[in-house]
C-alpha cells in the first residue's frame, strides 16, 4: 500500500473511533446532566 493510502486509512479510522467514543460518552454522561438540545 502506498503512503497516501496509509495516511488516509489512519485518518479515517481515527475519525471513526473518535465518533464512536464521543457518542458513547455522550450517552453515558450526557443523559441527565446536559439537556441543551
General description of the model:
- It is a single chain.
- The protein is mainly alpha-helical and 37 residues long.
- Helix content is 73%, strand content 0%.
- The protein has one helix and no strands.
- It is rod-shaped.
- The N and C termini lie far apart (43 Å).
- The model has no long low-confidence stretch (mean pLDDT 86).
Distance between the termini: 43 Å
Tell me what portion of residues adopts beta-strand conformation.
Answer: under 5%
Q: What is the radius of gyration computed over CA atoms, rounded to a whole number of angstroms? A: 15 Å
- Residue windows where pLDDT falls under 50 for at least 5 positions: none
- Determine the fraction of residues in helical runs and give it as a percent range: over 70%
How many helices does DSSP assign?
Answer: 1
Structural class: mainly alpha
Mean pLDDT: 86
> What is the succession of H and E elements?
H
Can you count the beta strands?
Answer: 0
Q: How would you characterize the largest beta sheet?
A: none
Morphology: rod-shaped
Amino acid at each position: 500500500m502506498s503512503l497516501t493510502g496509509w495516511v488516509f486509512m489512519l485518518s479515517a479510522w481515527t475519525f471513526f473511533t473518535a465518533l464512536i467514543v464521543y457518542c458513547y460518552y455522550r450517552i453515558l454522561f450526557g443523559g441527565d446532566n446536559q439537556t441543551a438540545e
